[in-house]
Amino acid sequence: MELLSIGEAAKRLGVHPNRLRAWEKQGLIRPVRLPSGQRRYPVEEINRILGTGRIKAEPDAVVLYARVSTKKQADAGNLERQMERLRAYAQEKGYRIVGEYSDVASGLNQNRRGLERVLKSAERGEFKKLLIEYPDRLARFGYVYLERHLKYCGVEIEITSQKEPEDAHTELVQDLLAIVTSFSARLYGARGGRKIRQGFRELIRDAEETGERQI
By the 8 A CB rule, do 41 and 32 touch? Predict the structure, then answer.
């Protein structure tokens, strides 16, 4: 029988070790006690929980998700400040944070590790609300489909801010450029894609300058 430490078991379940201790008190999970008094969790027990989904989140259980598009934004502290604002919001509302996930990636990227962990946690029924600052933190496109999937899992998305971040325009331009480059490269090849991308950059720059002159 393979046994896992509390840290290993918590990682497999995607929860904090304290959650396992709480579940033990509620009789929801059955660890093995070593002669030293330490807990060990049979792999079969972890698989049972994952398979049955019997552990349900309490009504105030929330997960926080933050995202920035670039490493430069993360290095400037934007990602951590975003997470701090989410923590403050959760505390003000009296929510209990059971998970914090983040990504440094475009909102167009469908293979984000943090987002994947959010979805897996939702599918296991570990929380009731997902807190994000703005819809595009979760996804630039396809937000409605993610919202529908989370709702099916019993999770409600709660938007914590009505004011867009200062760098929202820059991120949108970067995502638009990524879309243009991807499709133009397929249609015209790599060289043609680069030319179209450059032309699109100049078009955006001209539009921004025109807008500034009109203000």
Answer: yes
Q: pTM for the full model?
A: 0.59
- Per-residue pLDDT band for 21 (boundaries 50, 70, 90) equals confident
Q: Which CATH number fits domain 166-215: 1.25.40, 1.10.287, 1.10.3430, 1.20.120?
A: 1.10.287
Cα within 13 Å of Cα(188), Cβ side: 12
List of residues 6+ apart from 101 with CB closer than 8 A: 63, 64, 65, 66, 114, 115, 117, 118
Measured between alpha carbons, how far is 194 from 199 in angstroms, rounded to an integer? Answer: 9
Domain 61-159 classified CATH 3.40.50.1390? yes
3-state secondary structure of 133: coil
Where do the domains of the chain lie? 3-52, 61-159, 166-215
Active site residues: 69
Strand order in the sheet with 61-68: 96-104, 61-68, 129-132, 156-159
Measured CA to CA in angstroms, residue 66 lies from 13, 131, 139 at distances of: 21, 9, 11
Over the stretch 68-99, which tens digit does the pLDDT of each residue have? 988 998 999 999 999 999 999 999 999 999 89
Q: Read off the pLDDT band of 125 (50, 70, 90).
A: confident
Q: Is the domain defined by 3-52 classed in CATH 1.10.1660.10?
A: yes
Contact 45, 3 (CB under 8 A): no
